[in-house]
Amino acid sequence: MEAEIERLPVDLLAHIFSLISSFRDLAKARGVCRKWKSGVEQSFVRKERLSFAGWKVDDSSATRLVQASYNIKELDISRSCWGCQITDEGLYMISSAKCVNNLMSISLWGMAGITDNGVIQLVSKAASLQHLNIGGTFITDESLFAIANSCPHLKSIVLWSCRHVTENGLFALVYKCRKLESINVWGMRVPVDCFISLLSISPALQIKPLYWPTATALPVT
């Protein structure tokens, strides 16, 4: 059996392992032999997207995987039914990974255990960020101020049910992120007048899902 394994080139193993989404299976494969270990490690280098959605991971394991995947463009740390255990400490550690400066998409959806501190640390290193989902978190305007100052290429942001965000944070975001095309504001405690003012700053901005009192919808895609 070992002789058969040795015939497989590392590049081929890396390609095969890159098709496996189960971190548990990859961990088992990594322990088969040195060549498989190298193949698993190279498979993470090839990834352009890394998702922890559906997996129970902690700060340390998530950080190791992100640091190994230094070519990724998309990072999904959404909360899953299994209860992702990443905290502000994890976001601090992840922010030091080489890939963060090149990330174009980050999702922290539903991460109720994180605060402004962790979000600010992460986004301050994500200069290439275009898409951000921080819906279902307890972030405040402080996170939006940091995003406005650090992410000039931002195109879309999901603030679903971010009830501690006020119009001050939204204005800062729209003023400074001039490429912003879409904001999801479902469940936010912000008056409609605020959204009307945002459109006066950026008429092409899509605010969704939101409806005028007369039932005329704002632009939604």
Automatic annotation (TrEMBL):
<protein>
    <recommendedName>
        <fullName>F-box domain-containing protein</fullName>
    </recommendedName>
</protein>
<dbReference type="Pfam" id="PF12937">
    <property type="entry name" value="F-box-like"/>
</dbReference>
<dbReference type="InterPro" id="IPR001810">
    <property type="entry name" value="F-box_dom"/>
</dbReference>
<dbReference type="InterPro" id="IPR036047">
    <property type="entry name" value="F-box-like_dom_sf"/>
</dbReference>
<dbReference type="InterPro" id="IPR057207">
    <property type="entry name" value="FBXL15_LRR"/>
</dbReference>
<dbReference type="Pfam" id="PF25372">
    <property type="entry name" value="DUF7885"/>
</dbReference>
<dbReference type="InterPro" id="IPR032675">
    <property type="entry name" value="LRR_dom_sf"/>
</dbReference>
<feature type="domain" description="F-box">
    <location>
        <begin position="8"/>
        <end position="49"/>
    </location>
</feature>
<dbReference type="InterPro" id="IPR006553">
    <property type="entry name" value="Leu-rich_rpt_Cys-con_subtyp"/>
</dbReference>
